[in-house]
Design goal:
299 residues; Fructose-1,6-Bisphosphatase, Chain A, domain 1; 21% strand
């Protein structure tokens, strides 16, 4: 069943309003820590959360809402229509006055991702996609880059907030590609990184143990721009999976192979796909569990 146009337009409107709230907010002085010192929340997160929650309550009261400020993964049941909401993606940037953060909204209809919206706060740009209808920056259709060689690819990544105490910290993956690629960026906003993969500014983004609210909107935007989004095991990414590789497509296999080899060399193996609530489990031949495979609240 096609997504009602009013739902898409409403999500775009509330994402723009959220971005305006973030722009008007003073630089936070007293951030709140979640599970780790690298995982922050601020009063601005809570203001945007209230804005989005009010819209959802008024328009989609029967839908579930999942996000770091909405109960986290404990609230996720993929058999239900669900919104994945990240009020401020890039909170550390916001706290330090770095003008690079986004508001991210995605809608899962009970079977698949059907809507993704990412509002780039500082640049006043809006990225969005509907399943089967393409990806856009405003009114401009997006296409992932045609780069086919890893040595010509510009990549982006991030590091998990658990890195202070968990040795599975993305350094093995990073080390496997930073000399083989043109360059690697670390911008601090997964949602914008994914939007830039869709726009062809980046050729790949990868990361691990982020909550699905960080990734879901950007994943759909990448796919609708002609790119790919999988787990490290090469399986199609679903909300709840603990790692993500999103690329333009042509460089995807080389990246997956590099990450698998790097993780094996570091003694980590490849995580199996997550089995979340009523979502059907997917098998990954040869995958081995990680001691810390669950997504974190923040990234």
């Amino acid at each position: 069943m096609p997504l009602p146009r009013s739902t898409t337009l409403g999500a775009i409107r509330v994402a723009r309003e959220a971005a305006a709230v973030i722009r008007r907010s003073a630089q936070p002085r007293l951030p709140r820590f979640r599970a780790a010192p690298a995982d922050l929340a601020t009063a601005t997160d809570l203001r945007v959360q209230k804005l989005v929650r009010s819209w959802l309550k008024a328009t989609h009261a029967d839908h579930a809402v999942v996000g770091a400020e909405f109960g986290g993964l404990a609230e996720m049941d993929l058999s239900r229509p669900t919104w994945f909401v990240d009020p401020v993606d890039g909170t550390t940037n916001l706290v330090r006055g770095i003008p690079h953060c986004a508001c991210s909204l995605a809608f899962w209809d009970g079977q698949r991702l059907v809507l993704g919206v990412v509002a780039d706060v500082a640049r006043r740009r809006l990225y969005w996609a509907e399943a089967g209808r393409g990806a856009y920056e405003g009114h401009r259709r997006l296409r992932a880059s045609p780069v086919r060689r890893l040595d010509r690819a510009v990549l982006a990544t991030g590091f998990p907030p658990t890195r202070a105490f968990d040795p599975d910290d993305n350094l093995a993956e990073f080390s496997s590609v930073f000399r083989r690629s043109r360059d690697v960026r670390r911008t601090g906003s997964a949602a914008i990184d994914l939007a830039w993969v869709a726009a062809g500014r980046l050729d790949c983004y990868w990361e691990q143990r982020c909550g699905p609210w960080h990734w879901a909107a950007g994943v759909l935007i990448v796919r609708e721009a002609g790119g790919k989004a999988t787990t490290y095991a090469g399986l199609e990414w679903h909300p709840g999976d603990a790692d993500l590789v999103a690329s333009n497509g042509p460089v995807h296999t080389a990246l997956i192979e590099s990450f698998i080899d790097a993780r094996a060399g570091a003694g980590f193996g490849v995580r199996p796909p997550q089995s979340v609530s009523t979502a059907a489990p997917r098998s990954a031949p040869g995958a081995t569990p990680s001691e810390a495979s669950a997504p974190s609240a923040g990234c």
